[in-house]
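Hi there,

I know you've been waiting on this one. I reran it after we fixed the sequence typo, so this is the corrected version. Both the input and the resulting structure follow.
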Amino acid sequence: MTTSNTFDQLFRHMVPTSMEGIQIFSMDDNYIKPQRYNDVTNLENGIWEDLFINVAPLIDQYVSREYLLGMRALPIPKDRFPDFEAISPLIQNSTNWQLVSVAGFLSEELFFDLNANRKFPVTDIIRKSPRFEEKYAGKDIQNDEGYTPEPDIFHDIQGHIPFLMNKDYADFMHDVGTLGDTILRDERKLGSELVAHNLRRLQNFAWWTYEFGLIKNNGGTDKFRRQTNDIDYEIYGAGIISSFDETVNIVKCAKGESKRSQILPYDIEEIVMTCFNYSDIQDRYYVVDSMEALFDSFRNNQELFWFEG
């Protein structure tokens, strides 16, 4: 996705982020692919159910309040694929977002353009399914319960969508999308290298926040849980929520049972300059004080995304 340029030396934690082999759709492609709900197989429904049942108890115990309330408000079943047409109108009525069923991984330009128009792309392909294997036949693409580099329906719906029922969070996501869209349009005439650099800053921010972010646990969410949260953090990153392995890693690190990953205080200046790894458990997580602090931090530090060389 991102390629090296003159300004890469400014980043910390440079790691390979190759998406080699992954099919990426751009605005020039036929990226819209309506969900054919009646064609979902029993096997695919079974994969969804296995993934859901595996992670649900952990998520209920450790996820943030915004997510739990969003899940309660949406028809996301545990034993079969969710129906996009049943979910999208509820989100639109609540926060004016819509689901857009797409063919797969989207380019940054297309993803941010959709988000800027309050549209969230979702795909109905699921990891470990014959359809996924057929799509990448002959290519060495990781495809197991714990991870696949192409976001699937479980990541998109189970990880992201419940948050879009919260107005403040939905507005934040819209603001991120609008900024990404503006950077890519380059109305400031910064040139392609600075556009790519500033976009990567925004990608870093998105990764360490709404994909893999933690929030301080103040105990107030426990009234919505079946079991009390026994660590100092809540999860709001969709990449964690949709991964059993990632969630377990956080719990073990928080309890001192593992030193695999660092749990660090939120620092937006550090976050935007810290790159990430697509292909493994994260080696760090950043903890923000509250959702409001996250939103304010983003809106009050826009200059971080407009480096001019």
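Quick highlight: The CA atoms of residues 89 and 98 lie 7 Å apart.

Best,
R. S.
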